[in-house]
Amino acid sequence: MTMTGVTEPDVPGGGAPGGPWWWARRRSLVLDASLAVVSAVECAAEGVSFAHSSGIPVTLGMGFGFVVGATLLLRRRWPIAVVLIALAVTPAQMGLVLGVASLYTLAASDVPRRIIASLAVMTGAGTLIVAFIQTHHDVVRHGSSPSAKWGVVAITVLVAVGLTAPPVLLGLYVGARRRLVETLRERADGLERELSLLAEKAGERAERARIEERTRIAREMHDVVAHRVSLMVVHASALRSVVRDDPDRAVGSAELLGDMGRQALNELRQMLGVLRTEPAAGGAARPAEPVVRPVPAVTERSAEPDGDGPYLAQLGVLVEQSRAAGMAVSLSEEGDRRPLAAPVERTAYRVVQEALTNVHKHAVGATTLVRVAYRAEEIAVLVENGPPDGQPSAGLPSGGNGLVGMKERVSALGGGFVAGPSRSGGFRVSAVIPARV
User: Do 256 and 395 share a domain, yes or no?
Assistant: First the structure.
């Protein structure tokens, strides 16, 4: 609440923290009470002279002076009123402490400057007039010379300025300093709140980044493990049935199982390598950053993923592995094959890989078509299978995360993903990915 024009914090009951009524602190109350006692004693003493000169009882004059001086206790609550009281008793030549202290309090408050200037000028003018009259009366009574008149003017001006200017200037300085400190304190509080919010947001961003990284790692592991292990399970089932009747075919299937296991280990090793840290300058550890390189030339028979992950040039190998597992799958490419950014090629490859894995799990023996279209600004991938032919399932578990992971991958690159049943009774998975990331 505002008591002296200086803003102080509100508290229940109308008081200020730590002090009663309009005082912010108890020591402020003690100071004002002490000044009020000094002012009251001074005005009471001056009330004796006033009583003699005005012809009123001395007791009444002293009582009047005591009450007037005691009003200094209200200087923080009503500074303008106290200044007006001091101005009103100036003709009675009382209230020196009252006038100086009230002017200082008024100047230090948040009262508009024009009001402060007006009251200061009125107080100075009143003091000047009263001092001039009293000094001139004393000079005339003791005899005067022409040069004494200029002395009277000089003395009265000095008295008026000395009793008015210093308290006003000091009050203006203290008030400006107080407001500056309050502004700096508010700014510091605001900066502290802002830093706290920034710290909270940084923590949220870090937590969100950790969640996204965990999701990405889980998605990569799902793609690698689900596809490779699904093919290994299918080949293991076929190997058990042909090991006695066709040993040569069983040997080929065993070699293929070993190749698939090695490929899965290589992909897992590459993926987990992202989690490793390398020392940065100054000894601090920082995550190893993958480098995006141009797509290398990969032959159709190559089975080793290179660099940052598998590429579209390896789709032929992927399709051959599914064929070796007994799936009737065909690969069709449209447009001119060209190198694309590693995230685009990796995402397109994973979509085809996961779609073929789902066919192995849910549509054993179904005829499957894989189509890749290279367009000017995008690449389109389609994997569509027909209805299953009734062969027994390999008993592969399904966590329901394959389609979700594919959609997350494609959406992260700004592409579109659609999956659902086809008119032929099978299932269709399609994705359109921007060629530029």
Answer: yes
What are the start-end ranges of the H helices in 13-94? Answer: 26-54, 58-70, 79-88
Q: Regarding predicted confidence, which is higher, 39 or 245?
A: 39
Q: Domain for residue 207, yes or no?
A: no
Residue at 41: amino acid letter: V
Report the distance separating Cα 390 and Cα 53, nearest Å.
128
Contact 338, 374 (CB under 8 A): yes
On average, the pLDDT of the chain sits at 78
Under the banding of pLDDT at 50, 70 and 90, the label for residue 11 is very low
Domain boundary (199, 233, 259) is at: 199
Write down the pLDDT at residue 275.
59
Biggest CA-to-CA distance, the chain: 150
280 falls within a domain: no
195 and 225 in a single domain? The answer is no
Number of domains in the chain: 2
Q: What spatial distance separates the first Cα and last Cα of the chain, rounded to whole Å?
A: 59
Q: Which residues contact residue 128 at a Cβ distance below 8 angstroms, ignoring those fewer than 6 apart? A: 156, 157, 159, 160
- As a whole number of angstroms, the distance between CA 309 and CA 210 comes to 22
Residues 266 and 390 in one domain: yes
Identify the pLDDT of residue 276. Answer: 58
For residue 329, give its domain range.
Answer: 215-271+310-434
The domain boundary, picked from 199, 225, 253, lies at 199
Predicted confidence (pLDDT) per residue in 81-123, tens digit: 999 998 888 888 888 888 889 999 999 888 888 988 888 888 8
Please state the pTM of the whole predicted model: 0.46
Determine, yes or no, domain membership for 408. yes
d(CA 50, CA 91): 10
For 192-249, the pLDDT digits (tens) are 999 999 999 999 998 888 888 777 777 777 666 666 777 777 767 667 766 777 777 7
Residue (of 76, 91, 83) closest to 130 by Cα position: 91
Assign 369 a pLDDT band (cuts: 50, 70, 90).
very high
| Cβ contacts of 208 within 8 Å, gap of 6 or more | none
Pair 254, 159 in one domain: no
Residues 94 and 178 in one domain: yes
Same domain, yes or no, for 252 and 126? no
Q: CB under 8 Å, gap of 24 or more: what pairs does 405-409 form?
A: 405/219, 405/222, 405/223, 405/350, 405/354, 406/350, 406/351, 406/354, 406/355, 406/431, 408/215, 408/219, 409/219, 409/347, 409/350, 409/351
Q: Are 275 and 217 in contact (CB under 8 A)?
A: yes
Helix (H, G, I), strand (E, B) or coil at 97: helix
| 76 within some domain | yes
